[in-house]
Amino acid sequence: MPSNIHSHESREEYPPTLRYDVTPSDRDVIKRIVEGTGFFRTDEISVAVELIDERLKKGDASGYYFILAEMVGIVTGYACYGPIACTLGSYDLHWIAVDPAYQRRSLGRILLREVERHVLQNGGRHIYIETSGRPQYIPTRSFYQQCGYQIAAVLPDFYDRNDDKVVWRKIL
Amino acid sequence: MPSNIHSHESREEYPPTLRYDVTPSDRDVIKRIVEGTGFFRTDEISVAVELIDERLKKGDASGYYFILAEMVGIVTGYACYGPIACTLGSYDLHWIAVDPAYQRRSLGRILLREVERHVLQNGGRHIYIETSGRPQYIPTRSFYQQCGYQIAAVLPDFYDRNDDKVVWRKIL
Fold first, then answer.
1. Which of B95, B151, B158, B165 to mutate to test the interface with A (most CBs of A within 10 A)?
2. pTM confidence score
3. Residue-range domain boundaries for chain B
């Protein structure tokens, strides 16, 4: 799943508050962040919204867990992850996005680290991240690499012709 | 996703009737077939039933399409497939299973060919099948190979420790 995180995050000032419960009002906030990145296609944005809708409807049973980064009450980024069905210990990072106005503050890195901590606490062994092989994603790939992820598989033309799927994995 | 299809299917007698709509009564039939194979874990069986529940609730919008093989009105096997979200032209074969009492009649092959025909008709380019790397699946892998599928990726320890995910792909 997509992310708009770039590798050159640096400012560590104003550490965010992390929140683990989502409320109905987060739906529009998340949609705004995802749209605001200018990074995602309409169908991708719909999927991002579907995940929070499922979470709001079914809670933990949805299999979608959220971590929201807030600064003085304003949501500045979020991650969505969950266990992969029919596996023991494999998790997907479904989504990670940071409001463009708040990038370069290590928010992506803080969110991803927190996801890893939670997955490990719940007995997870692996985290998988699926990204596109398109040039647009070069900074994203660089971010995952710096966070200790490695390429586990490449599926040529998976998303579309000339749009490969790259599967990243971190063994916890 | 799992399948209990073996490679040494041979008898072509009694060609099955294929059906593309599912009814609430198919729910128990599919559960019985999947359980009857003795091939799947309880959590895998739950997922098989979830897919038909989603289909019954949401129709095409579920993204799950079914093909059922019938002989004189008795469902003897089925396949479930669908487009992969956020891709253009990539499909997953979610499930394929044949009632053990009706194996060795090429039902698996007939079902898989029909899935491929439908995917192609709908502009699909690729079909993906995810299977376990455990020895139990050697005959299944042989079946996919004979049907023209190739290994696109192997993810070590994905399902569990010592239980790899093997991703098969056919380019249509």
1. B158
2. 0.86
3. 17-124
